[in-house]
Write a structure and sequence with these properties.
mainly alpha; single chain; Glycerol uptake facilitator protein
Length: 243
């Protein structure tokens, strides 16, 4: 589970880096956001189709708690382990991107590097309530994408099921905790290496964002998907009558 969680952090990081690349110097604003959302979908496609453990997807395990198929202790253990190793994978991909030099160098940061710092700062400066509610709405869409993908019986169907919900959350501007685990550190690493970036972008603002977004990522689908679907569809199996 730990290795698969590291991979999930890296896979989502790949999607975030692709989105940064696609959105760099693109106008108008709406087209840029939709384009970024379209290419970010590769992250969750890799998680679901190639196989990995993603914290935000595992929020759906709450349904199994309600149905008494797993305990709260088992749920929390899974969440904590997967979350920590998602973070490790995300930081790893952010550090490796820094070492590629694709952002420029300490003397001259390029457009990609500037975009990465700008995106990181925009996320890091959200208020708690902004980050929380964007996190709620984001993970409703992410977990719907997971549900649609699991309902498909072909790779093509899974790709289609993932594409539109994920594109929607990125294009609108919602917040995904695991994506931010790489997107904000990318900006932080570039800022440290180049001395380019505002004072508001720092590790404290990173952790504040991650905390608020993570709570939102749990509460959103934890109420509007797991509870609603459980109450709507779950029927306990009837015990066999005694002879």
């Amino acid at each position: 589970m730990t290795l698969l969680a590291i991979l999930a952090g890296m896979y989502i990081g790949f999607g975030g880096i692709m989105a940064l690349t696609a959105m760099t110097q693109v106008e108008p604003y709406g087209l840029k956001k939709v384009l970024g959302g379209a290419v970010f979908t590769v992250g969750l496609m890799l998680v679901v189709i190639a196989g990995a453990e993603l914290f935000t997807g595992n929020v759906l395990m709450l349904t199994s708690v309600y149905a008494r198929k797993i305990t709260v202790k088992q749920l929390l253990r899974n969440w904590i382990v997967v979350y920590v190793f998602n973070l490790i994978g995300s930081l790893l991909i952010a550090w490796m991107l820094l070492k590629t030099g694709l952002w420029g160098n300490k003397e001259a940061i390029n457009d990609f590097g500037k975009a990465a710092v700008a995106v990181a700062n925009a996320k890091a400066t959200l208020t708690f309530s902004q980050a929380f509610f964007r996190g709620m709405l984001c993970n409703i869409l992410v977990d719907l994408a997971v549900i649609l993908a699991l309902a498909a019986d072909s790779v093509e169907g899974r790709i289609l099921g993932i594409f539109f919900p994920i594109m929607t959350f990125v294009a609108i501007g919602f917040e995904h905790s695991v994506a931010n685990m790489s997107l904000i550190p990318i900006g932080l690493f570039i800022k440290a290496a180049s001395n380019y970036g505002p004072e508001t972008l720092n590790w404290m603002s990173f952790w504040k964002n991650i905390f608020a977004v993570t709570l939102g990522n749990i509460v959103g689908p934890g109420i509007f998907l797991t509870v609603f679907y459980y109450l709507s569809y779950y029927r306990p199996s009837q015990s066999q009558p005694k002879n």
